[in-house]
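Write out a record, focusing on structure:
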Amino acid sequence: MSPKKLPIMLLILASTAAPLSTRADVITAGLYLESTQSANGSWGSAPETVYVETVEAVMALDQLGMTGTAYHAGLAFIRDEDIRGVQDIARRVGAMATAGEEVSEDLALILAAQNGDGGWGFDHGYVSDIYHSAWALLALHAAGTTDANVFNPGIAYCTSAQLASGAFGMDASHESVYLTALVVRALSGYNAAYDLDGSLNAALSWLLQQQQADGGFGLAGSSVFETVECLLALMAVDPSRPEILSALAYLEANQGQDGSFAGDIYATALGAKGLYVQVWDNDWDGVPDMFDNCWLVSNSAQLNCDDDPLGNACDPDDDNDGVPDEGGGVAPSTTGLLVRDVEDCASSLPVNANDQSFIYFGNFNSTALGWYSLYNQMLFDGASDTTAAGFYLYVDANDCGCIDIAAGESLTLTYDGGLVADIFLPSITAGYLFVADDGSTYWDSGLTSLAQASPQQPGDNCPCTPNPDQLDSDGDGVGDACQGLIITGDIDRDGDVDGMDLFLLAFSSGTVSGEPLYDPAADLDEDGDIDNDDIILFTTSFGISP
């Protein structure tokens, strides 16, 4: 970072930083775990819980980036432990896959244990249940398995087990906070491919009803165990949820001075993972996911013209005026153009030397609406219909064999009392074309076989200023609504010079033209670099608004 940038950056950070649990709170939890490890690399003392506690401790250390001696000793213990059952094997797959180690043998055991109904039970041959099925899906996702023949029935089994309330439980009469959060985490990894929003949102809605006044989660009062699972579920689906802050506050309040949670290994490992969510940054833009208005798209500046939950970088319509910022994105219409009477026609087609070169216009009422001559470049009027019907044309109506239209040529039709439609033609020498209401043409009357799509519309000419009419009087590509005088220092072009402009100036300070972070809008004196002269100019305008 340039030395010139530091003073402004520090000013911004000092004025905008939100109160967070400190990184030290997370590290002290990790240090507590390292200090309580047994000589054999495990954690815990009760034989029945040592394995699970060790896996959770190792996963917590990995997430915290504390992958030193204690972490590797824990991995070795997990690797060598004699285990059975889908849950324990799934835990090992998660730990080993995260560490980049081989998991094929354990993965094969999980795959072999899948039942015909798509779910998993305790082990091979056991009746399926939602708990073990969720663990299996988590392991498969961690290992990067891509076999849809495994995922499809597994996901179907889990979603079919969802209760009417949105929750999950081992049976219909026992809703479970932990199990619901676990299933949400398991299904969220497949949401992009399988569109599980309905199931996930219903489960989250139920979970949020279980948040207690102290910020924690639980059916009968809060627990670290349930709170962390719910935190991880919320982060997996929607890290912008405000309830996350309350849950973090609950965890902070329950962490001891030694970094532990009630001196319990399992709770401390979970608590460390829960506290760590505050620094998750999936898009590596320096803004934690829980505060990031585009948590999967890098956008350090967090620009947001319409102040909705989505930043400009991931909002398809920054000003909510109904005109997409980037244009396009609309599929060709499959609704027919209805025409009663053709009044005029113009075209981009060149003059044809053959006086028999005609395009016929008709509609589905069998009305001959007219003929367009490529020789004379004019319409020969036909009949009018009493009702509008689907419009079509026939290229080379006189069978001259003299027409050769290139893709992209167009006709401009005036019809039914002054209505205008642009019709877009494919490469064609003769034959029928059926017309959609956006000017797209099709080879068939059902409008299923596309011949030539209507060109995509241009993007919003004022992406940060609502202007659904897109008026651009001077034709310079900038709409009239945002054509006004630019104020010196208004770097984000929102009409005033404020803290966001200060942030943008600081972000590109010290750069020169051609460098990745150079922003020409911040180069106020237009000399090719962003330096102290630009800062001085900025201070003269700071606070100005219309």
